[in-house]
């Protein structure tokens, strides 16, 4: 079964493992309970006369099984990382083999070989749940190999080793079949959730756009209606009225061809600069369906800074198409020289401004 990949930044309930509750406290308690049961079984069975080497193998093997199980249950990464997966499969198999080797062969010890492989089987089932099916079944094949060595070399009877392998097989098959159905369903539900979120965001953006356009139309109505009514009555326009009309016409052009620059702060600063005699031109050369400007506040603040310091000449601000390296260009001309400010994405992926204090205007 192919593991379902998640987004690089997906964590917690965003991952399939998180959706199945693998990060909850209950799982950690259950893992601790498995190891406690493993230790309890060893304590309840009759004590064994073991050589120092076999005691070391038994202790290290038990610790290795605990580590393997802990790694399989740790975190909510989905699928489980490759290094952690390999560690779970290899450490568990080696640890189980070490525990088996430490157990003396005898008819009274037939129960003991099953305990370590129960722990390892649970770890392999967790690998299956976390999308590492192939590695889990490689772990099963490792157990089959250990069982074959135990029967052929260590002297264990088939009646002891075969049931251990069959129990592990019986536990892994249903988990594999269940995950073959459950994981694709969970992945599909995540896709539906993302689409729903995207639809809600698009609806919210559309509502915001409609509301902004309604406010703009209301403002235009407030500004334009007096001119139209005055013209309809045949009234005379003064020089101040003519200046107000030109400013209003320029503002209307800004709304159409420089919409990416539009914000209340920019509108106010542009209007103030034009009243001081500065020729301000705003352009948004991005595609018609382009969304919000990246780092909008920072880019707008740079334009406001230029406009606030301009008292003559011209200021031209342009938002560059997304396919280019630059994000925005602001050129300020006083008739004798041109000063450009260029915003481009730096090595960290963030927009950064650089200044060119001389040269000719090239926009």
Give a brief rundown of this model.
Helix content is 61%, strand content 9%. With 363 residues, it is α+β, with helices and mostly antiparallel strands.
Topology:
Elements: H1 16-19, H2 25-44, H3 52-73, H4 82-102, H5 114-129, H6 133-152, H7 158-232, H8 239-257, H9 264-275, E1 279-284, H10 296-308, E2 314-319, E3 326-333, E4 338-345, E5 351-356
Parallel strand pairs: 1-2
Antiparallel strand pairs: 2-3, 3-4, 4-5
Helix pairs in contact: 2-3, 3-4, 3-5, 4-5, 4-6, 5-6, 5-7, 6-7, 7-8, 9-10
Report the uncertain regions: 1-13, 359-363
H/E order of the elements? HHHHHHHHHEHEEEE
Return the structural class: alpha+beta
Shape: rod-shaped
Question: Can you give the mean pLDDT?
Answer: 82
Percent of residues in helices? 55-70%
Structure overview:
It is a single chain. The chain has 363 residues and is α+β, with helices and mostly antiparallel strands. It contains ten helices and five strands, in the order αααααααααβαββββ. A five-stranded mixed beta sheet has the order 1-2-3-4-5. β2 (314-319) and β3 form a beta hairpin. α4 (82-102) runs antiparallel to α5, α4 runs parallel beside α6 (133-152) and α5 (114-129) packs parallel to α7. The chain is rod-shaped, with a radius of gyration of 36 Å.
């Amino acid at each position: 079964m192919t593991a379902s990949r998640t987004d690089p930044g997906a964590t917690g309930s965003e991952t399939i493992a998180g959706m199945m509750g693998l990060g909850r406290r209950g799982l950690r308690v259950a893992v601790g309970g498995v190891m406690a049961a493993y230790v309890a079984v060893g304590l309840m069975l009759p004590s064994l006369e073991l050589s120092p080497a076999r005691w070391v193998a038994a202790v290290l093997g038990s610790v290795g099984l605990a580590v393997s199980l802990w790694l399989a249950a740790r975190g909510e990464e989905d699928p489980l990382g490759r290094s952690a997966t390999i560690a779970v499969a290899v450490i568990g198999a080696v640890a189980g083999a070490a525990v088996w080797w430490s157990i003396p062969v005898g008819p009274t010890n037939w129960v003991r070989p099953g305990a370590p492989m129960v722990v390892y089987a649970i770890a392999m089932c967790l690998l299956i749940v976390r999308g590492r099916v192939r590695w889990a079944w490689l772990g099963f094949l490792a157990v089959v190999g250990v069982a074959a060595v135990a029967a052929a070399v260590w002297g264990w009877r088939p009646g002891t080793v075969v049931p251990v392998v069959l129990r592990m097989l019986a536990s892994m098959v249903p988990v594999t079949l269940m995950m073959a159905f459950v994981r694709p369903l969970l992945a599909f539900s995540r896709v539906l959730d993302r689409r729903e979120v995207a639809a809600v965001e698009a609806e919210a953006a559309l509502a915001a756009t409609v509301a902004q356009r309604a406010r703009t139309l209301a403002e235009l109505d407030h500004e334009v209606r007096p001119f139209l009514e005055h013209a309809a009555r045949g009234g005379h326009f003064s020089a101040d009225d003519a200046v107000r009309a030109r400013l209003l016409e320029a503002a209307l052009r800004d709304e159409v061809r420089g919409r990416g620059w539009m914000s209340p702060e920019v509108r106010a600063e542009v209007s103030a600069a034009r009243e001081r005699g500065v020729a301000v031109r705003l352009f948004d050369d991005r595609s018609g369906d382009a969304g919000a400007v990246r780092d909008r506040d920072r880019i707008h603040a740079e334009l406001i800074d230029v406009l606030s310091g301009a008292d003559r000449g011209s200021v031209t601000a342009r938002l560059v198409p997304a396919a280019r390296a630059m994000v925005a260009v602001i050129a300020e001309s006083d008739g004798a020289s041109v000063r450009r400010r260029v915003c481009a994405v730096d090595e960290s992926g963030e927009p950064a401004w650089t200044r060119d204090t001389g040269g000719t205007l090239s926009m």
